[in-house]
Write a structure and sequence with these properties.
Length: 312
């Protein structure tokens, strides 16, 4: 039987989005208090966690699962994902698909709906398409091509500051429901339904309840299969089932397996040019000599030669 699709690793490290963050994230953290804290506030812990997890998302070196076909014993590796919100393109696409399925199954009533959409001005919209990004590692510049052919170019540090500023805080609510679909209204209906179903019925029997549980389980499997087919274009109900046989997280075991499969070595890349010194020089030029001296003394000394000392 021919499957409608096969799993293919997405190779996140080849995208401009990933390469820019991998090259300049540490430098961005060092320069943040000088250039971006005034506009964006202190660097939030959720931003650091999100970016760190994103840089490990889909990378075999940071762990993976072994997946095997129960029929032919064919195996492949499935890298762990970061599951971050509104940052990782892959994980956010899965999250949106799961959200749509949940809304369809748990929120919407089986009636026709009319949808209204309110948008904000384009200049204020934070979203962008990763396929329109181009990263220039020689210059440390990121270039974005709009749908109208306009090109916007900025250095990597400014781009990272702009993108990470839109990472939501933990437990921050991004979608709200009102009226019949509000949490309170749905909670009351669900409570009333549970009370009605919990009342004993003379016609009920253990066989019937088991049959109802089986039907519910089958329906959940069909919903999950539809969800996977929407994301991966694969129908998991066709062909032979795959099963996870192990989660590999130990660094020594990861390295041994990847070396055996010739997946350990990464293609060499030249180090990106540092952007911090030039930006800091321009920043210091706008300060008084004493303020500039204090900042120079607090930064890495390898950036400075013959630092002048200002005395009272």
């Amino acid at each position: 039987m021919v499957l409608s699709g096969t799993y293919r690793r997405r190779n996140p490290e080849q995208s401009s989005f990933y390469q820019c963050l991998e090259s300049y994230w540490e430098e961005f953290r060092e320069s943040y208090p000088y250039f971006y804290e005034k506009d964006y506030g202190p660097l939030r812990a959720v931003v650091e966690r999100t970016v760190t997890r994103f840089l490990e998302c889909g990378i075999f070196r940071h762990g993976f699962a072994r997946v095997r076909c129960a029929h032919c014993h064919h195996e492949y590796l499935l890298a762990f994902s970061c599951k971050t919100r509104y940052f990782c393109p892959s994980c956010q696409a899965k999250r949106v698909a799961a959200f749509v399925e949940w809304v369809n199954e748990e929120i919407l009533e089986p009636v026709d709906h009319r949808q209204y959409v309110w948008t904000i001005p384009r200049v204020l919209r934070p979203s962008f398409a990763g396929t329109r990004l181009q990263f220039d590692p020689q210059e440390g510049q990121i270039e974005y091509h709009t749908s109208k052919g306009i090109r916007r170019r900025m250095d990597a540090l400014d781009w990272i500051a702009l993108v990470t500023s839109h990472i939501p805080d933990v437990h921050e609510q991004m979608v709200r429901y009102y009226g019949r679909y509000s949490n309170a209204s749905r909670g009351k209906r669900k409570k009333a339904t549970n009370q009605r179903l919990s009342q004993p019925s003379a016609a009920s029997s253990s066989a019937e309840s088991d049959s109802e549980a089986d039907r519910f389980s089958r329906e959940r499997r069909r919903n999950w299969a539809r969800f996977l087919k929407k994301i991966y274009e694969i129908d998991p109900l066709r062909g032979f089932a795959m099963e996870i046989i192990a989660f590999i997280e130990q660094p020594a075991v990861i390295r041994k397996i990847l070396r055996h499969l010739q997946l350990w070595q990464r293609p060499p890349r030249s180090p990106p040019p540092p952007l911090f010194p030039d930006k800091l020089e321009a920043f210091l030029a706008s300060l008084t000599p004493r303020q500039a001296q204090q900042i120079r003394a607090s930064t890495d000394s390898i950036f400075w030669d013959d630092v002048p000392v200002f005395r009272d």
